[in-house]
Amino acid sequence: MPRPRPCLECQRLTRNPSRCDDCTASFEARRGSSTQRGYGARWRQVRSQAVVAHRQVYGEWCPGWNVPAHPASDLTGDHITPKSKGGTDDLANVQVLCRGCNSRKHNSA
Questions:
Q1: 11 and 47 share a domain?
Q2: Rounded CA gap, 88 and 35, in Å?
Q3: 17 lies in which domain range?
C-alpha cells in the first residue's frame, strides 16, 4: 500500500496519487469532460488518422520523448503544440507517441 501523502488541494493525507477522494471529485467536476475541453469527435478522428499513417510507415514503434525510440503497441496521437498553448487539431499538429512518452511529455511544446 502506498505511503500517505498530502492532497494537492486540501493537504489532508491520502493514499491516492494526487488528491483525496473529496478533492478528486471536485476537481473532475470543475475540469469537465474531454469533449467540453475540446477533445471531441474531430480530435478523435485526426488522432486515429495519425496513428494509422504512423503504423503503415513505422509499425509498432514509438519515436520516443526524451528517451530513445522503442517498440510500443500502445501508440496514441498527441498534440505537438498543446491546445492549452494555442495548438490546433490539424494533422500537422499531431505526433504519434506511446502512452508512456505521451505522459512524460504532458503539456510541453
A1: no
A2: 15
A3: 1-31
Instruction: Please indicate, yes or no, if residue 16 is contained in any of the structural domains.
Output: yes
| In a shared domain, residues 20 and 47 | no
Residue with the three cell numbers 526524451: 66
Asked whether residue 28 carries a pLDDT value surpassing 60, the answer given is: yes
Contact indicator for 6, 21 with CB cutoff of 8 Å? no
What's the per-residue H, E or C state across 31-62?
A: HCCCCCCCCCHHHHHHHHHHHHHHHHHHCCEE
> Is 36 among the domain residues?
no
pLDDT band at 31 (very low <50, low <70, confident <90, very high): confident
pTM score of the predicted model: 0.69
Residues contacting residue 49 through CB under 8 Å, at least 6 positions apart:
91
